[in-house]
Design brief:
The chain is built from four helices and five strands. By secondary structure, it is α+β, with helices and mostly antiparallel strands. The protein has one domain: 3-Layer(aba) Sandwich (Aminopeptidase). The protein has a five-stranded mixed sheet with strand order 1-2-3-4-5, sandwiched between helices. Helix 1 crosses helix 2 (33-47). The chain is globular. The protein starts with a strand and ends in a 14-residue tail after the last helix.
């Protein structure tokens, strides 16, 4: 089941964020559970959105995002902060449902475009195929370096 996140979901979402962080290119950076939880509360309070995926009443994944006006226009774009499903539940269906729910939310919010990226360095090819299967298209790479 996909549903909007509730404040009571935040501890579980932080657990999932720790797992994502530890398995991604972000693992070289410090992780602050308190800051992460506070950010999730802000999104739930309307500064963006979080949708969660539940299996047997347990949150096993989620998608966080927001909407902002483009820097050169009043047109709105929706963007993702993160899409994550715990590895044991990755069969494609939950991620697709999270993306579809996010796309509908973005449409309702008046976004003209959706921008999603893969900044974790994890499963880049398969995640790209997933995003393309949901109607997104490649517009350019995302590059990073340690300093």
């Amino acid at each position: 089941m996909i549903r909007p996140a509730k404040h009571s979901d935040v501890p579980r979402l932080v657990e999932l964020a720790i797992l994502l962080h530890s398995t991604s290119d972000y693992s070289t950076m410090a992780f602050c559970p308190e800051k992460t939880g506070a950010f999730f509360h802000e999104l739930i309070n309307g500064q963006g959105v979080i949708f969660v995926a539940e299996v047997d009443d347990v949150v096993v994944g989620g998608m966080a995002g927001g909407v902002i006006d483009q820097w050169f226009s009043h047109d709105l774009i929706a963007y993702d902060y993160s899409l994550f499903v715990e590895p044991s539940k990755r069969n494609g269906v939950l991620a697709v449902r999270l993306i579809q729910t996010f796309k509908e939310w973005a449409r309702i919010k008046g976004a003209k475009q959706i921008h999603m990226g893969i900044g974790t360095g994890v499963n880049v090819e398969s995640t790209t195929r997933l995003y393309e299967s949901q109607g997104l298209r490649k517009i350019g790479p995302l590059l990073m370096m340690e300093i």
